[in-house]
Every structure is written in C-alpha cells, then in structure tokens.
Amino acid sequence: MLGNCFTLFMATMAVICSVGSAYDPDPLQDFCVAVDDSKAAVFVNGKICKDPKFVTPNDFSISGLNRVGNISSLVGSAVTKVFVDQLPGLNTLGISLVRIDYAPYGLNPPHIHPRASEILVVMEGTLYAGFITSNPQNPNMRNKLFAKILHPGDVYVFPKGLIHFQYNVGKGNAVAFASLNSQDPGIITLANALFGSEPPLNSDVLAKAFHLDKKIIKYLQSVPWMQN
Ligand SMILES: *[C@@H]1O[C@H](CO)[C@@H](O)[C@H](O)[C@H]1NC(C)=O
C-alpha cells in the first residue's frame, strides 16, 4: 500500500516536473497570441498572451515571403524568418517557417537549431544539403555525414540539434522553404559563434580545438562574421 502511494506520488511529481520544464508546449487554449513582453516585469518560458478580445486575423498572418532575401552577404544566402517574433500568433504552437534564398554558390553555413528539427523543400535551383551526426558512442565510428544533391520538389529533413547546411551548386539562384517544430528554433552558426563571439573566446582554446596556429585563429577572430 505504502509502495503504491509512493509510486503514485513519484508519477505525479514526474508529470508536474515535466510540465515545469517543457518548451514549445501543447497549447492549453485555442491560441495565445504573443505580446511584446520586454516591458513585462516577469520572464516566462515563451511569451505572454494577448487578451483574446483584442486578437485580430493579422496576429496570425505575415506577408512578403514571395520576395527574394538580400543575398549579397559574404556567404551569399539570406534567411527570411517567420518565428514568434515576426508572427505573434505562433506563440505556444511549436511551429515556424523560413524562406532561404541562395546566390549561385551561396551557402547557408553549418549551423544548429537547438530547439527544432527542420523539414526543407527546394522550390528552385540545385542544393547540396546535409547534416552530421553527434559524437559517436563507438570511438571507431566517425561523426557521420548524410548529404545529397536536391532539386526542385525534393525534401530533406535535418534532425533536431544536429549540424546542417545547404550549398547552392547550381548556376542560378536557389530558393527553399523550411518548417521547424519550434516557435523560436534558435540558430547557432558555428563559425560565427566560435570566431565571432563577444567578447572573443580565448585563442588558445580555439587553437587547440581546431589544431590551428594561433595566428590563424587571431585572423579568424578579426574578420566580420555577419548573420545571413
Ligand atoms: C544587403 O546586404 C548588404 C551586405 O550585408 C548591405 O550592404 C546592403 O545594404 C543590403 N541591401 C539591402 C537592400 O538591404
């Protein structure tokens, strides 16, 4: 009897704890349109809901995804985001969208979404796209690359938290759309984060990690790392 009570107690605690630490939770109401919470006195895991009385169709809508992004950056790609900051109606729904434009040989550089898997569909052009698995359990296995060439209509999925990229290997521009299962997937562009951090990461750390001369690290830390 005592054992059963204890099991029930532990199960209840597990449920409470898992709710407490959840992210992109299932909504507890039809919607929870985000309001700008920067002025709010409390931090919440997500955004505060707008009073449903004042919600309008525009809270669920955004325009402009027919437009080509600015692909004149150093990497030759542009990501147009539709995350909760751009579309407040996404709050609590666990979903978002991007449009990605690529100049010829434009690259969406190796990056991670810490909170989302991504499913991408190519609309135009030819992309070389892939991801790399995490550090292997078996030390004889390498971090495995899964990559292939994609044409219009082809779909590729990038599992949550893994390093992935797309590279335009065609002669013209390329366009893809992708959906992510988070209202705010987060983006860690590896080169930018490691060589462009503010303040700069100790160059000994980077020299050792990359097996590179410190002069090369200093150079990499001196060049601009723009977000695409
Ligand atoms: C496009 O990006 C480039 C480089 O980042 C910048 O110099 C330029 O002003 C941008 N153009 C537009 C129209 O935003």
TrEMBL record:
Keyword terms, alphabetized: Apoplast, Disulfide bond, Manganese, Metal-binding, Secreted, Signal
Disulfide links within the chain: C32-C49
Chain positions recorded as Mn(2+) binding sites: H111, H113, E118, H164
CDD domains for the chain: cupin_OxOx
Gene Ontology CC: apoplast
SMART domains registered for this protein in UniProt: Cupin_1
Record carries keyword Cell membrane: no
Localization per record: Secreted, Extracellular space, Apoplast
Top-level taxon of the source organism: Eukaryota
Name under which the protein is recorded: Germin-like protein
The organism's taxonomic lineage, starting at the top: Eukaryota, Viridiplantae, Streptophyta, Embryophyta, Tracheophyta
